[in-house]
Amino acid sequence: MISLDAIDIPSQVRIALEEDLGSGDRTAALIPVDANSRVKVITREDAVICGVAWFEEVFRQLDEGIVIDWCCRDGDRVTADSLVCELRGNTRALLSGERSALNYLQVLSGTATLAARYADAVSGTGVRILDTRKTLPGLRLQQKYAVTCGGCHNHRIGLFDAILIKENHIKAAGSVAAAVIKALAMAPDIEVEVEVESLVELEEALSAGAKRVLLDNFSLDQLREAVNRVNGAARLEASGGVNLQTIRAIAETGVDDISVGALTKDVVALDLSMQFIDE
Fold it and tell me: Which candidate in 44, 73, 166, 171 is catalytic?
């Protein structure tokens, strides 16, 4: 599971600010350099909040004197029109940081909110909902962290921390068994998972020693049959055709995990608004 300690937030925010500010905020220069203001951030919809650390880091890098008072933290569920936080400090810095800070809070809260909907959909089944590598470019760790804030779980982070043998790997290796045997021998200390597309391939994977199998686009009946055949000998993950309308039925087949690319791929940014407060 991704934790904030594993993420270089200052470097990520520095890149975001360089992208947005470039040589300087020309519009904010209209404001007196010593002006101070109070602003508030509100959510226009029900949500799970995520991205507090990135939001704070934006303003820390612009002006360490800005004070942020939070009404919620990462993982908290909020209702529409709720106050998320209030900020006070240098007006120019508040204006210059507004978009970058909100971008993080909106995208990561959107990811966490969608993850929470999927987690709620399988509540009580014991199934883990897993993310995938279908993340927005440059936001891999941020979105995977957001997934955990929404109550779901992380699959592998990238190509380096686990082996997932998929269809093209199998074709290149010659067979399911050949790929599994080689992977287990090559990396005995790394988790190995193999994707199969039929019950026949499932049996081949199990015979080769696979302890984690991804069942790709199996029907509900096929998933139930796979669970019965495996009988706990390997961890089973369902994938393909998963959405909020189908996921409960998939979970009730008895599989251990369900991977959902939509958690990070189809995210819709949360509707947030930053408003100046009249003194």
Answer: 166
